[in-house]
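Lab notebook, bench 4. The sequencing result for the construct came back, and we need a structural model before the next group meeting so we can plan mutations. Quick request posted to the team channel:

Model the 3D structure of this chain.
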Amino acid sequence: MTPDALGDAAALLDIDIACEKALSFVAGLSRDQFKNDARTHSAVLYQLLIAGEAVRRVSPAFQ
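Done. Here's the predicted structure in token form:
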């Protein structure tokens, strides 16, 4: 596996993990419950930030 491919795989794994965590944080919550829960809201936003940073690490060749 090339270094770019390894980096892409790691970035994709980070994206997947962050998205899975975000989904698990909101599982079972209504939209209103989510909007009114600052801790969960912050946790989801943090995971989206992690996913966004990982997206930036994906190589141009993979994109």
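The mean pLDDT is 94.
Will bring this to the meeting.
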